[in-house]
C-alpha cells in the first residue's frame, strides 16, 4: 500500500478528546461502558491525544504485512550528533552538531477516528488478548489489568490499571455531562447556544438545566439530581 503522509491529529483539550473518541467508539458499535473504557485506554496511550498520528490511538507499529496491505505512515527519529570533518552544524543543535536520522519507524494509519477505534478492537482479536477483549466488550474495568497482564504495554498490570482508571474517572464525568447536555438539546435545541454539547458542564449548561427545571416545576437548583433525571430522560 502507498505510504500516507504523517498527520498529527489535534484535539484541543482533554474534554474534546474524550467527546470525539467516545462518539467514534459508539459509532464503531461499542456499548457506552465499553466506549468509555476505550477512551480511557486511548488517553493513557496518547497522553490525552497529545501524540496521535493518523488516528492511531494505540501507537501500533506497522509490520511488513501491514505495509503491503494497509495504510501506514513513517516517522523519522532525528538526533543531534557531532559533525564530521566538513559537515555543517544544524541550527537546531548545539554548536558543532548536526541532525541525523537514527531510525525510521512505520506506524499504522487510519482515515478516521472510527477506524482507529475499530483498529484497537481488531488488535484485541488476537488469541493472547481474548480475555481482555471479552472484558472490554462487557464494559468491565478489569479490562485494564487484564490488558496489562496480556503484555499490551510495557508497564506492570498494576501501573497500567491505575493509570487507566484515573483517566476513566475523567472520561465518565465528560460522558455524563454529554448525556445531560444532549438530553437538554433534545428538549430545546437552542438552550446551549454558545457551547452546545461539548462535555464541559459549565455555567451555560447549569443555566439550561435551571430553565428546564423551572419549566417542569422542579425548582431551579441547576443540579443534576434524580428528580430532574426522571423527567429529562423519561
Short structural summary:
With 234 residues, the protein is mainly alpha-helical. It contains 9 helices and 2 strands; from the N terminus they run αααββαααααα.
Task: Report on this structure.
- This protein is mainly alpha-helical and 234 residues long.
- The chain has a domain at 14-76 and 105-171: Lysozyme, CATH 1.10.530.
- Helix content is 48%, strand content 10%.
- The protein has nine helices and two strands, in the order αααββαααααα.
- A two-stranded antiparallel sheet has the order 1-2.
- Helix 6 (142-149) packs antiparallel against helix 7.
- The chain is elongated, with a radius of gyration of 22 Å.
- It starts with 13 loop residues before the first helix and ends with a helix.
- The model has no long low-confidence stretch (mean pLDDT 93).
Q: What is the beta-strand fraction?
A: 5-15%
Largest sheet: 2 strands, antiparallel
Number of helices: 9
Average predicted local confidence, pLDDT: 93
Strand adjacency order, main sheet: 1-2
Overall strand count: 2
- How far apart the termini lie comes to 50 Å
CATH topology of the domain at 14-76 and 105-171: Lysozyme
What pattern of helices and strands is seen along the backbone?
HHHEEHHHHHH
Named CATH architecture of the domain at 14-76 and 105-171? Orthogonal Bundle
Shape summary = elongated
Helix content, binned percent:
40-55%
CATH top level of the domain at 14-76 and 105-171 is Mainly Alpha
Helix vs. strand class: mainly alpha
Radius of gyration: 22 Å
Low-confidence stretches: none
Amino acid at each position: 500500500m502507498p505510504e500516507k503522509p504523517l498527520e498529527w491529529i489535534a484535539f484541543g483539550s482533554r474534554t474534546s478528546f474524550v467527546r470525539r473518541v467516545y462518539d467514534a467508539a459508539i459509532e464503531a458499535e461499542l456499548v457506552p461502558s465499553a466506549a468509555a473504557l476505550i477512551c480511557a485506554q486511548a488517553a493513557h496511550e496518547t497522553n490525552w491525544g497529545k501524540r496521535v498520528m493518523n488516528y492511531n490511538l494505540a501507537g501500533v507499529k506497522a509490520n511488513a504485512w501491514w505495509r503491503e496491505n494497509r495504510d501506514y505512515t513513517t516517522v523519522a527519529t532525528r538526533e543531534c550528533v557531532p559533525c564530521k570533518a566538513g559537515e555543517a552544524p544544524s541550527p537546531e543543535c548545539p554548536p558543532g552538531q548536526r541532525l541525523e536520522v537514527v531510525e525510521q519507524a512505520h506506524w499504522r494509519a487510519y482515515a478516521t477516528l472510527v477506524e482507529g477505534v475499530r483498529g484497537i478492537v481488531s488488535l484485541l482479536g488476537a488469541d493472547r488478548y481474548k480475555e481482555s477483549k471479552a472484558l472490554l466488550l462487557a464494559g468491565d474495568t478489569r479490562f485494564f489489568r487484564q490488558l496489562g497482564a496480556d503484555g499490551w504495554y510495557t508497564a506492570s498490570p498494576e501501573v497500567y490499571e491505575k493509570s487507566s482508571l484515573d483517566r476513566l474517572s475523567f472520561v465518565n464525568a465528560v460522558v455524563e455531562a454529554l448525556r445531560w447536555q444532549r438530553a437538554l438539546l433534545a428538549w430545546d435545541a437552542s438552550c446551549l447556544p454558545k457551547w452546545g454539547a461539548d462535555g464541559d458542564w459549565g455555567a451555560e449548561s447549569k443555566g439550561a438545566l435551571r430553565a428546564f427545571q423551572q419549566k417542569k416545576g422542579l425548582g431551579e437548583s441547576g443540579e443534576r439530581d434524580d428528580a430532574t433525571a426522571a423527567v429529562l430522560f423519561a
